[in-house]
Amino acid sequence: MNFRILGLSPAPFRHLFGLSDLALRAYGVQRQVADRSPGFPDRIELRDAEPGETLLLLNHLHQPADTPYRASHAIFVREGAEHAYDATGEIPDALLRRVISLRAFDAAHFICGAELASGAAIADAIRRLLTDPATAYIQAHFAMRGCYAARIERAEG
């Protein structure tokens, strides 16, 4: 079974790009400059920022459904990122180099499965979760800090 991994759309964050640090604080957002790579995984392009690139650290509602699983957490978005990651059958390096918590959700947005995986084992874990017909989508989280990483769906075709 093939899968599709999606980064976040840049649209909800564009109004923050280029604001002063003072203006960002009014939104509860902090600008950070990457001082190493890996270390600052952007959730739009699903890549680690290069040293010197700026990112916005903000709270993101990654599970907005009105269920007990409603959740938000801190994420990085690279300032100026314009193209959301969207690939079929590929795991981006930002996920491959970390331990990933995969959380499968059903159509009612309740967890119906979960796995921890790293490296090449991530693709196999995704496929196992997607073989369950109850799985509507998967959310990937960086296991160490619990931050949302990406959405995973069944690939069309």
Describe the structure.
The protein has helices spanning 21-26, 93-96, 121-131, and strands at residues 3-6, 30-33, 41-42, 47-48, 54-63, 71-78, 86-88, 99-105, 111-118, 137-142, 147-154. The protein has one domain (3-154). The protein is mainly β. The protein is 13% helix and 39% strand. The protein is globular, with a radius of gyration of 16 Å. The strands form three sheets. It has a six-stranded antiparallel sheet with strand order 7-1-11-10-8-9, with helices on one face. Strands 2-5-6 form a three-stranded antiparallel sheet. A two-stranded antiparallel sheet has the order 3-4. The protein has three helices and eleven strands, in the order E-H-E-E-E-E-E-E-H-E-E-H-E-E. The relative contact order is 0.22.
Uncertain segments are none
Fraction of helical residues:
10-25%
Tally of separate domains: 1
Rg (C-alpha, Å) = 16 Å
What kind of sheet is the major sheet? 6 strands, antiparallel
Q: What share of residues are in beta strands?
A: 35-45%
Globular, elongated, flat, extended or rod-shaped: what is the shape? globular
Structural class: mainly beta
User: What's the rounded overall pLDDT mean?
Assistant: 97
Counting DSSP H or I runs of 4 or more residues, the number of helices is 3
Total strand segments: 11
Strand order in the sheet with the most strands: 7-1-11-10-8-9
> What order do the helices and strands follow?
EHEEEEEEHEEHEE
End-to-end separation in angstroms reads: 10 Å
Any descriptors?
six-stranded antiparallel sheet, mainly beta, 3 helices, three-stranded antiparallel sheet, 157 residues
